């Protein structure tokens, strides 16, 4: 494998602000022949492109060159590999995190610097079994595979993998060509990294913050939708300040993850972030939990104890479900926000704390203020920078990515060789309204994986999750939704919105099931393939009268 000996020159160009893609011609090895693929990759190297497009073009060109079924570029993050660009796999694979230790082929690839090819009869399961696009009647298992670890500036960056459903797609010549192209592949990755570092360096100079380059958030928020990216950009901007941030959103949207990202990007990242669930605080203990107490302050207080504010000193305090705080505690919280002082329960001596407040709620705090259930002055203090988190139904592009992430977690947890979605299951996931958001999606997929076992699926097979195992009621197909109409007062047809069409279809299916089973909800639930309690909840949501008889 070619060894990079040009990083010092790269660094010189970067640090002196004279980086230009055309300088890359200087770094290319003179032994690289100008065949078609190197010429294409070289053209991309000297073209200014956004990193995602540059990497996607790389995998697409490699797939064409090797004539295989899939090419995946994976970046190493802690103990797992995360796809950053791919061609030929189901979209949900982009949301999966492949823990290296759980995949023997990835372990073998990451263990050496040379390309590794696995024979078609290899007994090592492929991480992409069932995820490649297959023709009717064709096996879902990968029959030919090779890959190579990638190094940038002397450190392992990740890996490139090439897979095919047809045995014999790769041979010794393919392995040699992958080795041959490794310099160009690593150079493209290096360019993406240098462009990113150069951008961050310019930003840090503008803000005169020497530590900015090292601040990189964990990749724990999955998604590519416009709504999500807009929120992440706002988080990046507000992170550098000490302004209180109020995260607003429905239950299950993952507000805690956004609070964690805010802390990771802030100058307080090396200090603690303390979490407290305000809804779980008993009013009698809330003051002690938040501000601490001294010995003898109340029965059972045998010694002095610091509260959560002191524990978060210098860092961030995340107040989840802040709308549930008792009014008596709200006044004392306001004092901390105003002057940075707390008092332990049982003493009048103030203590100074330096804490950034990030709060979250699924309540309409403005309405609670009007109802006298939340202090107006505290509300205005907390909502200096309100940030709405979009519900999952507004992040359609992210649903399958998140589903893939949770499916991989369940595959590992339950010991499956491979878990995938049927086409009908994928469509159902995208079309469902997700009132419980990301948390509901996680629970639905955990339940579906267990349903697969209860239906006799073998853990050693490639298991395809069927739509009926998801337990989602009455979601119309896009074709049905697109043609849904209803009669208006004049007897003509009026077009429905997507949500109205889905709800109408749900009502019709529930009513038909109830009529067929003589209003027995338990039998109707079984016929619809859902849990009876979930059917009652959905019926109430849709405005149908529900009775408990027959359950």
| Topology-level CATH name of the largest domain | Beta-Lactamase
The level-1 CATH class of the largest domain: Alpha Beta
| Overall geometric form | globular
User: Which secondary-structure class do the elements indicate?
Assistant: alpha/beta
CATH superfamily of the largest domain: GAF domain
Name the average pLDDT. Answer: 82
Strand order of the largest sheet: 3-2-1-6-5-4
What separation lies between the terminal Cα atoms? Answer: 67 Å
- Helix share of residues? 40-55%
The count of strands amounts to 17
CATH architecture descriptor text of the largest domain: 2-Layer Sandwich
Please describe the topology of this protein:
Elements: H1 7-15, H2 36-45, H3 51-66, E1 70-77, E2 80-87, E3 98-99, H4 104-110, E4 116-118, E5 144-152, E6 155-164, H5 172-207, H6 226-239, E7 245-248, H7 255-265, E8 273-277, H8 283-291, H9 308-311, E9 316-320, H10 327-339, E10 341-343, E11 350-352, E12 356-361, H11 365-370, H12 376-382, E13 385-388, H13 396-414, E14 418-421, H14 423-431, H15 437-454, E15 462-465, H16 478-482, E16 485-487, E17 493-495, H17 498-516, H18 521-528, H19 532-541
Parallel strand pairs: 7-12, 7-13, 8-9, 9-12, 14-15
Antiparallel strand pairs: 1-2, 1-6, 2-3, 4-5, 5-6, 10-11, 16-17
């Amino acid at each position: 494998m070619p060894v990079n000996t040009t990083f010092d020159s790269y660094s010189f160009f970067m640090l002196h602000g004279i980086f230009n893609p055309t300088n890359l011609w200087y770094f290319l090895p003179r032994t690289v022949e100008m065949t078609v693929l190197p010429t294409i990759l070289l053209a991309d190297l000297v073209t200014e492109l956004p990193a995602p497009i540059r990497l996607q073009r790389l995998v697409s060109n490699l797939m064409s060159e090797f004539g295989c079924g899939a090419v995946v570029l994976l970046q190493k993050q802690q103990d797992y590999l995360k796809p950053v660009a791919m061609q030929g796999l189901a979209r949900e694979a982009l949301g999966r995190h492949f823990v290296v230790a759980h995949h023997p082929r990835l372990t073998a690839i990451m263990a050496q610097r040379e390309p590794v090819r696995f024979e078609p009869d290899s007994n090592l399961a492929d991480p992409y079994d069932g995820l490649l696009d297959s023709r009717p009647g064709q096996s879902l298992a990968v029959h030919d595979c090779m890959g190579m670890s990638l190094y940038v500036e002397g450190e392992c960056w990740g890996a490139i993998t090439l897979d095919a459903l047809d045995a014999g797609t790769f041979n010794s010549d393919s392995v040699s060509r992958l080795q041959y192209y490794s310099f160009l592949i690593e150079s493209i990755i290096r360019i993406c990294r240098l462009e990113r570092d150069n951008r961050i360096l310019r930003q840090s100079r503008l803000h005169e913050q020497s530590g900015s380059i090292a601040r990189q958030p964990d990749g724990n928020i999955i998604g590519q939708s416009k709504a999500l990216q807009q929120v992440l950009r706002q988080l990046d901007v507000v992170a550098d300040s000490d302004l209180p941030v109020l995260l607003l959103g429905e239950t299950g949207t993952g507000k805690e993850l956004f609070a964690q990202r805010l802390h990771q990007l802030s100058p307080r990242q090396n200090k603690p972030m303390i979490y407290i669930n305000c809804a779980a605080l008993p009013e009698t203990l809330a003051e002690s939990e938040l501000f601490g107490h001294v010995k003898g302050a109340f029965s059972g207080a045998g010694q002095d104890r610091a509260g959560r504010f002191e524990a978060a000193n210098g860092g961030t305090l995340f107040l989840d479900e802040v709308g549930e705080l008792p009014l008596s505690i709200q006044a004392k919280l306001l004092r901390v926000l105003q002057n940075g002082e707390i008092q332990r329960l049982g003493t009048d001596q103030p203590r100074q704390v330096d804490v950034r407040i990030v709060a979250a709620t699924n309540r309409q705090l403005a309405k609670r203020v009007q109802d006298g259930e939340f202090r107006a002055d505290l509300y205005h203090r907390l909502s200096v920078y309100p940030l709405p988190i979009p519900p999952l139904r507004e992040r359609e592009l992210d649903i399958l990515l998140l589903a893939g992430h949770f499916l991989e977690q369940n595959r590992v947890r339950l010991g499956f060789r491979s878990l995938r979605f049927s086409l009908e299951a994928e469509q159902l996931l995208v079309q469902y309204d997700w009132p419980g958001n990301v948390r509901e999606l996680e629970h639905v997929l955990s339940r579906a994986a267990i349903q697969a076992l209860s239906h006799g699926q073998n853990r050693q097979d490639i298991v395809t999750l069927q739509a009926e195992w998801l337990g989602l009621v009455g979601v119309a197909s896009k074709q049905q939704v697109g043609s849904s109409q209803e009669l208006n007062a004049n007897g003509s047809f009026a077009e429905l919105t997507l949500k109205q069409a889905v709800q109408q279809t749900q009502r019709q299916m529930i009513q038909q099931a109830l009529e067929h089973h003589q209003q027995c909800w338990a039998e109707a639930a079984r016929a619809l393939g859902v849990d009876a309690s979930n059917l009652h909840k959905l019926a109430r949501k849709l405005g149908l009268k529900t009775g408990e008889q027959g359950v």
